[in-house]
Design a protein that fits this description.
It is a single chain. The chain is mainly alpha-helical and 167 residues long. The chain has six helices and no strands. Helix 3 crosses helix 4, helix 4 crosses helix 6 and helix 5 packs antiparallel against helix 6. The longest helix has 26 residues. The chain is globular and about 45 Å long.
């Protein structure tokens, strides 16, 4: 539990007082982490244009994709840049938005089930970053990039079979 608290506190620092800081110990880039950033475009294809808010939400997914790719691949580490902070802030915001949207239409248990793997993978990515294990970091960061957008896409699709997204 101490590790979870430490990672949470570190994340809060990285989106506030250490906004521009890179948080990886190596000066390497992974093509897999870069390629999987494009999975963040997937939800765009599952959001029906029903209002200005759905259009805005689609744009936010596109912006998120740009910053994930830029932070995790283009700029990489250990270079400090505001791109890292914007990426983390957007990832946090988009994750929380999906939790709120999901809670509006499903039970809390559905939210836990849907969020479990993406959150667990980002957690393990941070664990292996701290342990300086490059290969496991790449695997879990890529898994976070893939599972989160796929689950978000499914949830958005399923909700919109019966409801407007922002009604």
């Amino acid at each position: 539990m101490d590790r979870v608290v430490r990672i949470f506190k570190e994340h809060l620092e990285l989106i506030t007082t250490k906004f521009t800081k890179a948080n990886h110990p190596w000066d390497r880039k992974s093509k897999w982490v870069g390629y999987t950033a494009f999975f963040y475009l997937l939800p765009i294809f599952f959001i029906k244009d029903t209002s200005k808010w759905t259009t805005f939400y689609k744009i936010m997914w596109a912006v998120q994709t740009l910053f994930v790719f830029s932070s995790d691949y283009v700029f990489g580490n250990p270079k400090d840049t505001p791109v890292h902070g914007i990426d983390r802030l957007l990832a946090t915001t988009m994750t929380l938005s999906m939790i709120v949207i999901t809670l509006k239409h499903y039970s809390i248990w559905f939210v836990f089930a849907g969020a479990f793997f993406p959150v667990y993978f980002v957690y393990l990515s941070k664990v292996y970053t701290a342990k300086k294990d490059w290969d496991k970091y790449v695997f879990y960061q890529s898994a976070w990039h893939v599972t989160g957008p796929i689950i978000a896409s499914y949830v958005l699709y399923d909700i919109q079979k019966k409801h407007k997204l922002f009604e």
